Amino acid sequence: MAPKALIFILLTLVSTTIIHTCSAQTDKKFPAILTFGDSTLDTGNNNFLQTIFKANYKPYGKDFPGQVPTGRFSNGKLTSDILASLLKLKETVPPFLDPNLSNDELSTGVNFASAGSGYDELTTSVSGVILVKNQTQYFEDYIKRLKGVVGEEKAKNIIEGALVIVSAGSNDLIFNYYSLPTSRHQLNITQYHDFLLQRVQDFLKAIYDIGSRKMVVAGLPPIGCLPIQISARFKSPSNRTCLTDQNSDSQAYNSKLEPLLGQLESSFPGSKFVYLNLFDPVMDMINNPQKYGFVETNKGCCGSGFFEAGPLCNALSATCNDTSQYVFWDSIHPTESAYAHVAQNLKELLAKL
Question: How far apart are CA 76 and CA 81, in angstroms?
Answer without folding.
Answer: 10
